[in-house]
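Example 5.3 — Glycosyltransferase involved in cell wall bisynthesis
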Amino acid sequence: MKIVHLCLSSFYIDEFGYQENLIPKYNKKDGHEVTIIASTFTYNKTNGEPSTVDVGEYINNDGVKVIRVDYKYNFWGFFNDKIKIFDGTYQLLERENPDIIFCHGIQFLDLYNVTKYVEKHPNCKLIADTHATEANSGKNFISRELLHKIIYKRAIQKSLKNIEKIYAIAPGCKYFAEEMYSIPSSKIEYLFLGADTDEINFENQNKIRNKIRNDLNIAAEDFVVITGGKITKRKNIDALLSAIKKIDKDNIKVIIFGAINTNIKEKLLQKIHQDKRVSFIGWIDSKDVYNYYLASDLAVFPGSKSALWEQAICCGLPLICKEWSGMKYVDVGGNCIFWDNDIEELRMNIESLMEDTKKYESMRSIALTKGYETFSYEIISRKALS
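Solution (predicted structure tokens):
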């Protein structure tokens, strides 16, 4: 089939491990013809800030055609970032002539043009997902009551009859879609985030583990905690560092990867450098993240939700993560410990997994079996088209 993925509701970042990267990758791998139509919004890997790229067309590293488009009405300035009407969306769909359109996000007014195309081409099926929750969207009165409950809701409601299915990536997204846009529950299914399981090299795990640990001067018997990503204040890495400081053991090590947001960088790096057991390795390619997971023993994410959670699970890592409403689906039977802002509690949870071998191995086994089956993008990408 010919599949067009629309990444116009938010950013699209090349070579990342997000849903809008990996579902197209596995669609292509399964033999479909795939195009991504995306905004110019991306992410600066150096300073951890939002960024833009040029309008244009290219083939990405997965062999997928990417078309970057700009706003249609640039004189609207700041409002463009909210209403999101792009230049030539309808014409691009006519040119690509897809069998399936997958909208990644439904919070954009160009949805009118998408549904206009589907109405004119009834053999083309439209599916969508939504990532919006109370934690990341509609966080002030104007955004919630005007942008979401009126402007986006009108576009979504007008389009609903043309959308085959809306996928919520978490229970919190389903609740938000129902409450904010009055989308019927029957129209929504779950399609969880996952991992690029092609990149998890279990066969050479020992070799990978030894090399990374040697490079970082970490002993084979050390207990390694890993965290990272796009490091903003909401990721709460400071809490992890505080908990680690309370653990009086030389055999615990911490690996932090990613880009630190400018407004917290100086203070966080200062705290990192105060503990010789902590290694900050900076930005790494999304494919290399899996190798660092294979070299580690435990993943800890004390802040906001990230696709890195599911990726860690698929690599067989027990997970300690912040307890968010609607996010407990990452626990598929005992692989996760949920934490609620108490530093001493976080310390105790980490130490318990260092000392209780039976508990640790049980969590690891569940991650490697049920976790892998639940969060593999090879499986998720096929489910999305079903």
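Remark. The first helix runs from residue 19 to 29.
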